[in-house]
Amino acid sequence: MEQKQDVLDQLQQLTAELRGQFFQQLGPELPGLTAMHGRLLILIARTNGCTAQQLSELLRRDKAQITRLLNDLQQAALVQRHTDPSDGRRQLLVLSGQGQHVATQLQIKKRQIASKMLAGLTSQQQQHMSELLAQMYQNLLSRDI
């Protein structure tokens, strides 16, 4: 039991440090916004034309929280909402030109942080770690505690 707690502590510590470093890198790109805003920008860049509901499901966050964050991004002129031509009730999210620029810069910084974090690990170790993390995630989704 102690071993499992140690792994959980390590994962939490790693996650906190990743968030801290990502937030530190975001400062110049997103003044007044948070790492979660940056995460949304990156996801919208990947899934151009997605909806707030899709982001909510993907991030496992409350839709109201996602909507508030999207409102901030829209107010900062980084995200635009367009009515879905196939369903007038839905709003599709797209990045503005400035939003695309910021998302690109954030992706570069994200890769730099990942490179720093993975320094000294072989490609085999990185692949194995990726497989282990995927398995742990699946375990949490499919098993009772």
From TrEMBL:
InterPro entries: HTH_MarR-typ (IPR000835), WH-like_DNA-bd_sf (IPR036388), WH_DNA-bd_sf (IPR036390)
Gene Ontology MF: a single term: DNA-binding transcription factor activity
Domain HTH marR-type: 4-138
Gene3D superfamilies: Winged helix-like DNA-binding domain superfamily/Winged helix DNA-binding domain (1.10.10.10)
PANTHER family noted in UniProt: TRANSCRIPTIONAL REGULATOR, MARR (PTHR42756), TRANSCRIPTIONAL REPRESSOR OF EMRAB OPERON (PTHR42756:SF1)
Name of the protein this chain belongs to: MarR family transcriptional regulator
One Pfam family named in its UniProt record: MarR_2
Source organism of the structure: Rheinheimera tangshanensis
Keywords, sorted A to Z: DNA-binding, Transcription, Transcription regulation
